[in-house]
């Protein structure tokens, strides 16, 4: 663990401000990251300096009491993560998702349960309506199933509707490690929705990964979901809109993907479909459309969007 980056991450979560990675300077490592006293001493030394990193912390936590709060929070989070087998991955570490590192505001640390190696696989981000049509649920399920056969991971938010349908497809395809990344708006153990917890447990037990930037015990609020969604689109070179209403969180995430320079592909439906007015709007604005999971995967295989295409991806897409 990188103590300065972790402290900055804790500070950003407590203060709702962002600490850019490029302002972080190397400092002496903390001797015992499980000791609250060691963190308090280490943080006080940090605040006594004058380099840009220390000045940035000082603006958010200027009093001794506020410094004590962030130090004790950091120590508590490290202890809880150790007790519950939760990994902490800093943005500078090799295990950190490579594409996510290059968005405008990557989280300085990620908390995860499961197989960190899955984060190095090629990904597709899948987004869509919670209240979706049966056709959309089928598209999402089929995409998850076929992508898993290609060795491509599905990144999604685990919500009802299109999100969980895609991960159900991955689970049905099987394989260990599982090709699934579920990203949450709240901290462990407050991941949800509750009705999908059994799928999340399966993802973790089969070698997929559960991921969040939020501290342990953080209950997700309405504003946390768009913040979470930048991670979903940021993890993958391609974001797939399975189905979107005209005014929906899916449309917001689709715009995020474009702002991040990601490719956007949209499933098409019959003209006038009230469930897919947002999807039609994106297509009219220039987004590429497909009508089946197999078409989408073959298209991505031909373009080699991941640089090196997983072995057999084209054959699996056509099967």
Structure overview:
It is a single chain. The protein has 319 residues and is of the alpha/beta class. It has 2 domains: 3-83, no CATH class; 115-318, Rossmann fold (3-Layer(aba) Sandwich). 43% of the residues lie in helices and 12% in strands. The protein contains 12 helices and 9 strands. Strand 3 (123-127), helix 5 and strand 4 form a beta-alpha-beta unit. Helix 5 (134-149) runs parallel beside helix 6. The radius of gyration is 20 Å and the shape is elongated. Residues 308-314 have low confidence and may be disordered.
Layout of secondary structure:
Blueprint: H1 3-15, H2 36-47, H3 52-60, H4 64-83, E1 87-90, E2 109-114, E3 123-127, H5 134-149, E4 153-156, H6 162-173, E5 180-183, H7 197-205, E6 209-212, H8 224-234, E7 238-241, H9 249-259, E8 263-267, H10 277-284, E9 288-290, H11 293-303, H12 313-318
Parallel strand pairs: 3-4, 3-7, 4-5, 5-6, 7-8, 8-9
Antiparallel strand pairs: 1-2, 2-6
